[in-house]
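Input sequence (199 aa), recorded before submission:
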Amino acid sequence: MKKKVLLSLWFGLLIAAIGFLFWHNEFKYSLPTPIPKNYHKVAMGSAIHLSQCCAFDSKPVFFHFFNPDCPCSRFNVPHVTELIKKYGNQVNFKIVVLNTKKTFTISEIQEKFGAQIPVYFDEGIAKKCGVISTPQAVLLDPLHNLYYRGNYNKTRYCTDAATNYAQMAIESLLGQEKSPSFNALALRAYGCSLPNCTK
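Predicted structure, token format:
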């Protein structure tokens, strides 16, 4: 009888510890990313000069800022993959890998998204676009003005169709509408802080 009580107690503590760790992880990534001290704000509508990667793009340009070590980045890979499939003929998609600890190849990243799209490893692109965390979406209009910078969805797994912010921005731009107004959940950075995937 005593053995059963001890076993039940141990099992209960184990379940509680796992639950706490899961809650702590979820809570941590639901907090806004702290703004770095040296952050240079880039306003919506600003011209983004990125001659090294989009000088010849005449269509809108979509940057997906991605860190393979960031849990939030990994969670939204299927959603970004769907965006590439759906809008790839109308928008020039590009992936910017931001990771200072590991080296990845272009083919490794392309394989994750199932798409032969340009991949860059340049943190300077993030700075020019005002990006401080991953995952983040940046959409430039055909004149390379900042049309949208923000999150993909209010949920980490991009499961809430009503808050597909990045997709809404794409559809708005393709419909030649003025940049839509989004709430703080769309525009405030969440996820893993640059450059070290920390929170």
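Checked by second reader. The CA atoms of residues 96 and 162 lie 26 Å apart.
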